[in-house]
């Protein structure tokens, strides 16, 4: 399924760019940029493969992934040096695309190991979002994923759609295409119209204050 | 050992509630609450099983764990919406119970793989506290475990008690019951009388200031 | 290769000391100091072995590692209590030595599993720096590694040197000695003359501001 492989590498490049940009916002040096780019783009898949005992993990099995992530990071630095503006909307759309691909791949890898549906969804979401979460943790921010428009919810829906189609007698390529489109549409709609889920507010009352 | 299995699920529910409350204090949305609840309740066991190469990890082997964690999170949101107050003391006691169970289970799983005593204790402590530590890291706080009354020390003692009893010719259920009670008693005493270990203070002198 | 094993344990002790000092700067209690020391000294190797599926991980295989880390932490507390000053320069030199050893060991372990060169370098760097990165994350700081003089760059170079020598017909001990010396020299020069890589500055413009 070579178009899918190309999409996967595109997702890696996009997440590497988003990692490099965050590293730049924190004024990291060249090495910091590379590390954050690698973690953002390959962290989710590494966590998934390690927890699923799916060895060797994706970037050890195929070193093109590392190459793409490194090129994505270096390309970002060069781009910012040469031409100031980052096309934020273009980046958000590309990020949504990467998210969609990673979610479906994560679900697919989990299903291939016959895990329960709930675990397959978790693996899909983890593959899509964990890299970004680790990036934000290292950069000492509350992960954006928990504070923005609908993000991982799109992954949950897309993962469930894929699992449903996977069990039907449809062509595998079609299953992937529909599930990827589902994540993409939800995420792009959330960006366009600033859709978000209701929040769970709780006043910060420490136990000590009551004692 | 079905009463122990029930206790384990109770521990999952309790940690899911504590995760959901922390997520509420950070005003996360529904998805954020679920993710933090899942990480808090299943993170320790996932880390333990992955490092011990004990696959499939607990929540992939048995999807009741995920269900209980999700219900614990949703129940917390519903409870807070319906009736304001959280019974902080009740939560602390329940948390102590979950901690006790998780510590003994972690030690047990490690001993079943014939690891050295030191590694079995680390696995017990890790199972008990890692979920909460990851929760605090994601929520961008210095993990409470390092700043409160005796917490993980109770795990260390309970884990050692379990290892001692495990080697004796006592019934397995009794070993578990005594070790769980040990963690519970130490932790509850620490909460009741605000017991803490001495701290290691060190002024923050950066090397640069000396150069 | 017993002198290498001794060096490895020395690296564990040094990183345990650096972890204990950071824990002291955060006024943690005895347990917190031990946990941070263990994570700093054994975290990198644990991550490497888990991702490489190299089980049992190093400190389960050989419990001397845990003993050395615990003694390093307790020794640090005793030392600070007895005699105030920490010899910062001595610590930096020891840290550079630990970094050099860990990097070469990580690369070696990865090469033994016939991974691609890029993955072997990542494993070397990860073994050298991940413990410190996790330490900084738990202590809620942007990892120092991303903000200081040349640090992980020394690991990358040392790892590549080792991989090059490994393929030549040189004695294994010599390969290790040269690669360790490479990391050490680069890192000590960076400390001595405050060498750093250029930074990638990017103004923090959130997408919301443009919409």
Characteristics of this structure?
mainly alpha; 0% strand; 211 residues; membrane (chains A, B, C); homotrimer; disordered C terminus; Gly_transporter (chains A, B, C)
Give a brief rundown of this model.
Chain A is mostly helical and 211 residues long.
Helix and strand topology:
The structure is a homotrimer of 211-residue chains.
Chain A: H1 2-25, H2 30-51, H3 58-61, H4 64-82, H5 88-111, H6 117-138, H7 152-167, H8 172-193, H9 207-210
Helix pairs in contact in A: 1-2, 1-4, 1-5, 2-4, 2-5, 2-6, 5-6, 5-7, 5-8, 6-7, 7-8
Task: Describe what you observe in this structure.
3 copies of one chain form a homotrimer. Chain A has 9 helices and no strands. In chain A, helix 1 crosses helix 5 (88-111), helix 2 (30-51) runs antiparallel to helix 4 and helix 7 packs antiparallel against helix 8 (172-193). Residues 206-211 of chain A have low confidence and may be disordered. Chain A has helices at residues 2-25, 30-51, 58-61, 64-82, 88-111, 117-138, 152-167, 172-193, 207-210. Chain A has one domain (2-195). By secondary structure, chain A is mainly alpha-helical. Chains in contact: A-B, A-C, B-C. The interface between A and B is large, with 37 and 36 residues. Chains A, B, C: This is Membrane protein.
